[in-house]
Amino acid sequence: MLATALISGFNIFINKVFVAKVDPLILTAVRALFIGLIFLAISYGVSKKKKESFKKVSWAPLLFIGVVGGGLAFWLFFEGLKLTTAGRAAFIHKTLPLYAIILAFVFLKEKITKQQIVASALMIAGLVFLESTLLLSSIRLGDFLVLGATVLWACENMFSKRVMNLKETNWVVSFSRMFFGSLVLFALIFILGRASLLWNLDANQILYIAISAFLLLLYVLTYYWGLRYINLSKASVLLLISPVITLVLGITYLHEPVYYNQLLGSALILIGAYVVIGQKSEKRVPSV
């Protein structure tokens, strides 16, 4: 999960550097399709090598993961992004651990210690300090759409962990999320009349899509691989380290200014992450 946070932080930094303009729906659909096909090949290869079933659970939860998490959530996010700022959308998205923790406790019966609750609260508080300037403007309709997308992603994460608890591989889960999600996104592209944008991509845009797809591939690979072995409540919170990584990269390579609230927020996030890492991934013991 630390590798996932590092990749996420680096991805945000890269998006600041590259200025190629690509329609976000086109970008997400194309890279999701290619990544889905890669995970399909990996899933087939792993199942063949281990002589196991390619799919251990029914298609219903796998389709839910793809349609909801890989498709509808992205659509809501991008529609919301049109009606709010990129910074506020990014901040709202980072509140995902709050909903993931609740879902993991209720539906996955994960054990969440008092130390983990305090540490998670510290990290959320650190996020508020780190990106406090994004909270100054008034609430917009786009904020609610982005919030809806974030809740859907939390639900998809919960279903993904539940499927893996039933011994489905992280490779099949990753394939389902990306491939089925891409089908939904391509359907939206044609419904919304944006198909012409696919045929008019220039070399710079294709390069940007390729770089973005590679980083997303690493993100999905490490996140769902890690989620296979640790609790969702723990995995989702550790992703809050990514803004700290982005901040460090921005200061180091873009010479961006640093403020006291950012230092305080980063410190709280790192302290909370240290505590969360020390917590074991367990299920609640049923009362007798």
Can you tell me about this structure?
By secondary structure, this protein is mainly alpha-helical. The chain has one domain. 76% of the residues lie in helices and 0% in strands. It has 13 helices and no strands. α1 runs antiparallel to α10 (203-227) and α1 (2-17) packs across α12 (242-253). The radius of gyration is 19 Å and the shape is globular. The two termini are 34 Å apart. The mean pLDDT is 88.
Chart the SSEs and their pairings.
Blueprint: H1 2-17, H2 24-50, H3 59-82, H4 86-93, H5 96-107, H6 114-130, H7 141-165, H8 170-191, H9 195-199, H10 203-227, H11 232-238, H12 242-253, H13 260-277
Helix pairs in contact: 1-10, 1-12, 2-3, 2-8, 2-10, 3-7, 3-8, 4-7, 5-7, 5-11, 6-13, 8-10
User: DSSP strand (E) fraction?
Assistant: under 5%
The biggest beta sheet, please? none
Order of helices and strands: HHHHHHHHHHHHH
**Total number of β-strand segments?**
0
Could you list the spans in which at least 5 consecutive residues all have pLDDT below 50? none
Number of helices: 13
Class by SSE composition: mainly alpha
**Coarse shape:** globular
Number of domains: 1
State the share of residues found in helices, binned by percent: over 70%
Mean pLDDT: 88
Terminal residue distance = 34 Å
